[in-house]
Amino acid sequence: MGSGKGRARRTQSIGVHSGYRLELHDFGDGQMIFAYQHSNGGGWVAETAEVEEGAYVGPEAQVVDKACVLDDAYIDEKAKISGGAVISGNAIVTGEAEVGDDARVSRKAKVGGRVQVLSRAKISDDAVVDGEAVVCGDANVRGDANVGGDAWVAGFLSTGEMLNGTLGTQPPIAPEDVLMEDYSEPSGGEDPLLVPLEDLERVTF
């Protein structure tokens, strides 16, 4: 799961876009695309992406493709926002985390480490995702849930739940390949936690 992270290598002045000086810029993958440095933090933003004035994009962070960073969201260190991902509210994405595809990180959620948030996953409220966790599929991590280690979440995780686990060398499978019978489903009408229990340590407090 290559993230394409890396420092910018080359720039070439080309014009003006929305008040910013637009340049041809290499985001580290050898492709020169139109981009600009955001006024709040100096991070590079592709012309096709959207970053609001109140948002922060640190000098090594990247916002590419059609990604959106809205409100007072904070992107720093070597974090990368790509695809059609949306970061909003007071959400924070740091470390070498990558939020891509159609994923959403909102409210006061925090994503760091080398986390990957992909597909249609949503992280919101005061949830924290760190370590080398992968949140994918239609996952919904919310409340004050905490995901860390090598955990893989492809379902729902809510207030008071913590996951720290590993899938070893097995990569996450595509959402359409997930078999419901392979996962636990809590009773009492709670949202199902679609994470293999044999691979994860679950602590409820």
Low-confidence stretches: 1-13, 166-205
User: What structural class results from the helix and strand content?
Assistant: mainly beta
Strand order of the largest sheet: 1-2-3-4-7-10-13-16-19-22
Order of helices and strands: EEEEEEEEEEEEEEEEEEEEEEEEE
Distance between the termini: 33 Å
The biggest beta sheet, please?
10 strands, mixed
* Shape verdict: elongated
Portion of residues in helices? under 10%
Mean pLDDT: 79
Estimated share of beta-strand residues: 35-45%
Computed Rg: 18 Å
Helix segment tally: 0
Number of DSSP strands?
A: 25
Short description:
Helices cover 0% and strands 36% of the residues.
Write the layout of secondary structure elements.
Elements: E1 11-17, E2 20-26, E3 32-37, E4 44-46, E5 50-51, E6 56-57, E7 62-63, E8 68-69, E9 74-75, E10 80-81, E11 86-87, E12 92-93, E13 98-99, E14 104-105, E15 110-111, E16 116-117, E17 122-123, E18 128-129, E19 134-135, E20 140-141, E21 146-149, E22 152-153, E23 156-157, E24 161-165, E25 200-204
Structural features:
8-stranded mixed beta sheet, disordered N terminus, 10-stranded mixed beta sheet, disordered C terminus, elongated, 205 residues
Can you walk me through this structure?
- With 205 residues, the protein is mainly β.
- The model is unreliable at 1-13 and 166-205 (pLDDT under 50).
- It has a ten-stranded mixed β-sheet, with no helix packed on it. An eight-stranded mixed β-sheet has the order 6-9-12-15-18-21-24-25, with no helix packed on it. It has a seven-stranded parallel β-sheet with strand order 5-8-11-14-17-20-23, with no helix packed on it.
- The protein has strands at 11-17, 20-26, 32-37, 44-46, 50-51, 56-57, 62-63, 68-69, 74-75, 80-81, 86-87, 92-93, 98-99, 104-105, 110-111, 116-117, 122-123, 128-129, 134-135, 140-141, 146-149, 152-153, 156-157, 161-165, 200-204.
